Amino acid sequence: MCSVGDVTNVDVSRLTPNEYECLDCNNKFKGLGRRVTCPSCKSSNVKKLN
Amino acid sequence: MSKSSTDPDSDRTVAIDFDEILYLCGRDSVIGIVKAGAGQWFIETEDDEIVLFTEEDDLFVASGFGADERMIEGIRCMLYLVREIGSPLIVLSKNHPASGRLRMVVSAGRETTIECGITPGTHPEQDVLCGMEEFDGMRIAGVKDGVQLQNVGLSKIDMRKSRM
Residue B53: which of A3, A11, A35 has the nearest Cβ? Predict the structure, then answer.
């Protein structure tokens, strides 16, 4: 879950997304959640890097 | 917009369709809830981008500081922008001057707890969203075909639904 634009401050540095690489288009991205797909090509053929 | 009956119980599951918004209208604030559905959303920080992946029964929850019809319409517009238009969720940096000017905040995920006294250092994975005191401690969870509300005096809330 993420809250956004909070009236009080949100310490984003404590967010702990995983890093992924798309094995189809090589896009690297940070993601939160279980149903991870590449935001660039929509492929679910992704690898967790960390 | 249709009104549903209120209830003195503190827990209730309310059915909502994907194209419906559930409004919880208190004396000083309004909370709007929609299904997020399975999808990907972008969280933008000052120097990073995080992709948030939601599932079918996850929720978007908007909390507005004000209780008039303009705020209710604003909540609808915000949820439409986020879910239908795919507007990225912007996270302000700590102590950003705009923080105090916001009249509406949004959360996304399976579960959200409303807190009126969030302190600096609170982070998004604590599943909290800033709200007025009347909703303090309320837990909002996405369940199959609906929303589960817990720990709130439902008898003091005007519960409504409208189409997105």
Answer: A35
Domain ranges across chain A: 16-49
* CA proximity to B16, closest of B117, B151, B144: B144
Residue B25 CB contacts under 8 Å (≥ 6 apart), including other chains? B67, B72, B157, B158, B159, B160
Q: How far apart are alpha carbons B64 and B130 in whole angstroms? A: 9
A35, B38: Cβ pair inside 8 Å?
A: yes
Lookup: tokens for B33: 């809830």
Identity of residue B52? L
**Structure tokens that stand for B26 in this block:** 């208190």
pLDDT single digits (tens) A3-50: 454 433 444 555 688 999 999 999 999 999 888 999 999 999 999 997
